[in-house]
Amino acid sequence: MSLNRTIVLGIGLGAGQALPGVLYAHRGSDHDHVTALSTMAQTGGFLLAATGPVVASALHGAIRAWTAPLAALTATLVICTATSTRTGHDPK
Fold it and tell me: Which end of the chain has less neighbouring CB within 10 Å, N or C?
């Protein structure tokens, strides 16, 4: 990999780690609220991310094709996109 690609990848990954922290701080009303938001989002995110490889491996092993794991990933992305449309909005 060339040096330029490595630099761009590093900047992108660094921004991907910093952006959620900024969003928690922006959304939270005080220290306890920011802590609660961060804890909930990271716990849920890590649990969801940890199940992905296990489920994909089980589907691939059962079917012996990548169609089912890719379909499950696509369905998960669609569900996450649909449920996150109201994220960050004040409840009314």
Answer: C
